[in-house]
Amino acid sequence: MTIRVLLADDQALLRGAFRVLIDAEDDMEVVGEAADGHEAVELARATRPDIVLMDIRMPGADGLGATAAICGDEDLAGTRVLILTTFEIDEYVAQALRAGAGGFLGKGADPKELLAAVRTVAAGDALLSPAATRAVIDRFLAQPGPAAADTAERLAVLTAREREVMAMAATGLTNEEIAERMYVSPFTVRTHVHRAMAKLDARDRAQLVAIAYQSGLVPPGRPS
């Protein structure tokens, strides 16, 4: 199947570069371009894309508001938002996740990373860049929470493989990168992640990362 992508960025030059990159892929096509949040929502409703590649800072309605509108529209249940921004700071990451974004990637990512991110989010997986993962961790560590020992007991329901995958995800690795390190398929990694989330009642990948640090599965500090 072809992944249908809507571009939302106020910089025409960037939209043009993204269009060339995406349209060059056999399994992707750009179905529209928006220069602000309002236009992004309107075009999403008109074109029903699989992915909206969304900038945060745009004139008028910003990307966060547009993300909330798209993710909250029942008619757009099949559309997922991938945030692509220069500003990978904790407040933006937290707001984007609350708005329903399926992924968060910095504009410093190389073309290969961007294309992989589009495919990951289109497949139904959440994706956080290493910088965004650090922002989630820093924000989480600054807040009081349950004792590590109490949280660690929750991990008893996980298999050794699920804990291993969870720990790698907490460092910001994508499913593809984890799969390479474990010599398994990305599908297998995705299955482990989803099972860990279900067993721990984690609503998304970001919360799974937070639990990994809270429980002591991964030592406090910045992931590599």
What's the short story on this structure?
The protein has helices at residues 12-23, 37-47, 63-71, 90-99, 111-122, 130-141, 148-154, 160-169, 175-182, 186-200, 205-214, and strands spanning 3-8, 28-34, 51-54, 80-85, 103-106, 127-128. By secondary structure, the protein is an alpha/beta fold. 40% of the residues are buried.
Name some characteristics of this structure.
224 residues, alpha/beta, six-stranded parallel β-sheet, 11 helices, 6 strands, 52% helix
Your description of this structure?
This protein has 224 residues and is α/β, with parallel strands linked by helices. 52% of the residues lie in helices and 13% in strands. The chain has a six-stranded parallel beta sheet, with helices on both faces. The chain is globular. Helix 2 (37-47) packs parallel to helix 3, helix 3 (63-71) packs parallel to helix 4 (90-99) and helix 6 (130-141) crosses helix 11 (205-214). It has eleven helices and six strands. 40% of the residues are buried.
